[in-house]
Design a protein that fits this description.
The protein has 240 residues and is of the alpha/beta class. It is 25% helix and 27% strand. The protein has a four-stranded parallel sheet, with helices on both faces. The mean pLDDT is 86. Keywords: Methyltransferase, S-adenosyl-L-methionine, Transferase.
Length: 240
């Protein structure tokens, strides 16, 4: 709640999709033109609304409909009070349930064309972000572009000095408006001068299953794999 930079960038991202902003990328503009051509309204579904902040941002940005989902009863009660106190009780529909439990209640007319959620942690996917967005795309969103999920990736890098490769740190970047100019990052300060320190998002440290001896200038292959909630890494010397 008190992460001002995160809140500002989420709001910018919502505005770039919902309302007209000067630097909105072309595909967001095309999305809005397509909705208007079909005579459709912007319906935002906020998964895990918490106190309702993102839902109110969406309503303020001009969404005709907002549906807020919150499974934790005390938080849903809080969100309902917040909506009422801020005058949004008539434009935000609150459902006190998990997003995956309302599938049977959602008709095609009730599906949204914008999905928003803040379900990220230090490891990015540790709070179930992959399943949340995948199932929301399949069951709560209107027909749109397909999404592909990859499980393994390889990257080759060059050792900067000789020694033993035993661990690595990871951070992530989120492009909040598709332009590459509004990035939400957990990068360390020594890499990004504009990086903000947060007590809820930090860099993650991963130890390799086996240490790898390296020499300066040597090519190292790094393998990254993940399941729904965690990443793991392995490294080996390049054959070259």
């Amino acid at each position: 709640m008190h992460d001002t930079e995160r809140n500002q960038k989420y709001e910018h991202g919502l505005k770039s999709v919902i309302s007209e902003v000067p630097d909105a990328p072309n595909y967001f503009l095309a999305f809005k033109v397509e909705l208007k051509a079909k005579g459709e309204e912007v319906h935002v579904i906020d998964i895990g609304t918490g106190t309702g902040l993102l839902s109110m941002m969406a309503a303020r940005a001009g969404a005709e409909r907002v549906t807020a989902l919150e499974m934790f009863k005390p938080m849903s009660v809080c969100a309902e009070k917040v909506f009422h106190q801020n005058g949004y009780e008539d434009c935000i529909r609150l459902i006190a349930s998990r997003s995956t439990d309302v599938i049977d209640e959602v008709s095609d007319e009730d599906k949204g064309n914008v999905i928003v959620a803040e379900v990220f942690d230090t490891e990015l996917i540790g709070e179930g972000a992959l399943r949340t967005f995948k199932e929301a795309h399949q069951t709560l969103a209107k027909d749109g572009p397909s999404i592909t999920y990859y499980e393994t990736a390889f990257k080759t890098f060059e050792a900067q000095s000789s020694g033993t490769f035993e661990a690595l740190i990871m951070w992530w970047d989120l492009d909040m408006d598709g332009t590459g100019r509004c990035m939400l990052t957990t990068a360390p300060k020594w890499l990004e001068e504009e990086a903000h320190w947060r007590d809820h998002w930090m860099q993650a440290v991963y130890y390799l299953p086996e240490s790898v001896p390296v020499h300066q200038g040597q090519q190292i292959i790094l393998q990254c794999s993940h399941d729904e909630f965690s990443f793991w890494f392995a490294a080996q010397q390049s054959a070259e």
